[in-house]
Automatic annotation (TrEMBL):
It comes from Panagrellus redivivus (Microworm). The keyword Disulfide bond does not apply. InterPro entries: Dev_Immune_Receptor, Leu-rich_rpt, LRR_dom_sf. Keywords: Signal. It holds the Pfam family LRR_1. One of its GO terms (cellular component) is extracellular matrix. The keyword Signal applies. PROSITE patterns: LRR. This is LRRNT domain-containing protein. PANTHER family: PLATELET GLYCOPROTEIN IB ALPHA CHAIN (PTHR24373:SF371), SLIT RELATED LEUCINE-RICH REPEAT NEURONAL PROTEIN (PTHR24373).
Amino acid sequence: MVKLDLMNNELTELEPCTFCGLDNLRDLDMRNNKLTSIDGAFGTDRLTELNLLNNPLNDIPPLFFYGARVLKINNKTFIRG
């Protein structure tokens, strides 16, 4: 699986290692949910695009987005060259 769209699902939490084992996942869209934390949900640094817009996130693990080229959080877009 390369792209996964989970937008508008009213997700409130992610279990630890929810996306572990999805080594080919590159594009993940989880905008418009109710997530307050994503800590521990990921086991890959291969994401190139992650969309978390419109989620009431409390914090974001600092080393989490090492591989992401495009990151959308709290109505801001970050693009790494």
